[in-house]
């Protein structure tokens, strides 16, 4: 499902205003998540200020702002280009962390990865040949990547007591509210502009249920089975899957600029993730050892502690599992990986 969501966005944009479309997606996702909370008996009510701050940060930045810019940007570019530009998010995260977190240190490989990744985004944007159309879309998508990276960094400040499934439910409700608020004040996002048809309804259902809810459950099952270092490789697969679906379903071309841009962004990502990737390579070359209580890995710009008791207790949908090593916070949000 990772990557195929960009094709669903492209289909839905033919009938739905972009931001209102995103709002409908998270209306559907929030309803399903609240149903999962009730069915599982998980605690729904936030208990601490950090829980509330985490819900607001995730809902406003990781869902509201991020997806508003994503859906607006994809109006101008292909689904493959959108996926490639969004893969810049984990590369820009260390630079944002340096400004937002006083204790954070940026390594030389982070700086080099940021530079190489930015060149990759520029290569894709330059292929548009003008300041309209494609370049505008790339700029909006770049903003979406930055919003996601900023939200990911800010969540490190908060200690979470709320189960993850409940956090997702509240965050998607807040995000949907932000998106609806924007659509209410923008004339091009009026409900009267919606063309209700089978394609629009299918796109909303697929994105809301399969990508947002299914992506969440599958991603945390993947974390439980293989660990964050291996799961981070999903970031490589998403643009490739998006390009494949776009070409097969929509007939979108795969250009040399897209291949070059993705290659540079992938190199930048590898430079930023060089330590967990090196641990992964070493693990493939020898027996897999159990992580120590103090070992950390970085996934999509966030650091996670691999504590032995936590791994044993991990259950998908219960809110237990891998937690950030710096005072809690949200796990990387799988809803951003369409």
TrEMBL record:
Residues 1-124, 136-271 form the EamA domain. GO terms for cellular component: membrane. It is a multi-pass membrane protein. The chain crosses the membrane at residues 20-42, 54-73, 79-99, 111-129, 135-155, 167-186, 198-220, 232-251, 257-278. InterPro entries: AA-Vitamin_Transporters (IPR050638), EamA_dom (IPR000620), EmrE-like (IPR037185). This is EamA domain-containing protein. Its main location: membrane. The keyword Transmembrane helix applies. Coiled coil: none annotated. Residues 314-338 are annotated as: Disordered. Keywords: Membrane, Transmembrane, Transmembrane helix. It is found in: Membrane. PANTHER family: EAMA DOMAIN-CONTAINING PROTEIN, INNER MEMBRANE TRANSPORTER. Residues 318-330 have a biased composition (Gly residues). The keyword Aminoacyl-tRNA synthetase does not apply.
């Amino acid at each position: 499902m990772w990557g195929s969501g960009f094709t669903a966005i492209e289909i839905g944009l033919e009938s739905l205003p972009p931001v209102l479309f995103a709002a409908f997606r998270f209306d559907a996702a929030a309803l399903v998540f609240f149903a999962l909370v009730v069915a599982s008996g998980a605690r729904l009510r936030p208990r601490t200020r950090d829980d509330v701050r985490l819900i607001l940060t995730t809902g406003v930045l990781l869902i509201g702002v991020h997806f508003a810019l994503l859906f607006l940007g994809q109006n101008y570019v292909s689904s493959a280009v959108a996926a490639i530009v969004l893969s810049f998010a984990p590369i820009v995260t260390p630079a944002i962390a340096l400004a937002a977190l006083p204790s954070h240190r940026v390594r030389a490989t982070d700086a080099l990865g940021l530079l190489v990744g930015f060149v990759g985004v520029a290569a894709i944007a330059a292929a548009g040949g003008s300041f309209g159309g494609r370049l505008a879309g790339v700029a909006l998508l770049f903003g979406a990547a930055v919003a996601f990276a900023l939200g990911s960094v800010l969540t490190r400040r908060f200690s979470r007591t709320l189960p993850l499934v409940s956090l997702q439910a509240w965050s998607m409700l807040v995000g949907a509210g932000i998106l609806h608020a924007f659509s209410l004040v923008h004339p091009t996002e009026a409900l009267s502009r919606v063309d209700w048809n089978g394609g629009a309804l299918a796109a909303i259902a697929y994105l809301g249920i399969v990508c947002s809810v299914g992506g969440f459950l599958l991603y945390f099952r993947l974390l439980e089975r293989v660990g964050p270092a291996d799961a981070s490789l999903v970031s490589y697969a998403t643009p490739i899957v998006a390009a494949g679906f776009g070409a097969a379903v929509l007939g979108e071309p795969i250009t040399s600029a897209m291949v070059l841009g993705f290659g540079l962004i992938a190199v930048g990502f590898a430079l930023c993730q060089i330590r967990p990737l090196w641990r992964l390579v070493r693990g493939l070359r020898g027996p897999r050892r159990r992580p120590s209580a103090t070992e950390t890995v970085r996934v999509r710009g966030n650091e996670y502690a691999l504590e032995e008791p936590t791994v044993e207790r991990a259950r998908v949908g219960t809110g237990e599992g891998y937690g950030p090593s710096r005072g809690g916070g949200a796990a990387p949000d799988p809803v951003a990986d369409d």
